[in-house]
Amino acid sequence: MPDHHILQNSQFCPVCSEEIAFQARYPRYVCMDCASIATDINGRKLLFYNVDASGGFLAFYADTNEIYDSHQCFINGLECRADEAKFGGIVIQVN
Q1: Is residue 2 situated within a structural domain?
Q2: Is residue 26 part of a domain?
Q3: Parallel/antiparallel/unpaired status of strands 72-75 and 11-12
């Protein structure tokens, strides 16, 4: 009987196609370089952080440090969502 479990150990950024570490929990996550150019719908650069050491999610406009009250972001025209990662940090995935 064929084994239907395929082991996957590579993954590619859905924005730039760079090879990234395999993360089954985040199948559409973007690489760090692409994450660093995330913007709002108007093209303003965004920064994402955890609230503190226990997690949480905060987003700011890079140019003013004004709070950005959304998880939606865009990378090279692709709509994405930034969120708190399960074990800390921030993860951005293409919608």
Answers
A1: no
A2: yes
A3: unpaired
Range of the domain at 60: 11-94
Total of domains in the chain: 1
State the pLDDT at residue 8: 65
Q: What is the pLDDT of residue 1?
A: 47
Instruction: List Cβ neighbours of 83 (8 Å cut-off, separation of 6 or more).
Output: 57, 71, 90, 91, 92, 93
Name which residue leads in pLDDT, 80 or 53: 80
Residue from 69, 78, 70, 87 nearest 31 by CA: 78
Please write down the HEC assignment for all residues of the chain.
Answer: CCCCCCCCCCEECCCCCCEECCCCCCCCECCHHHHCCCECCCCCEEEEECCECCECCEEEECCCCCECCCCEEEECCEEEEEEECCCCCEEEEEC
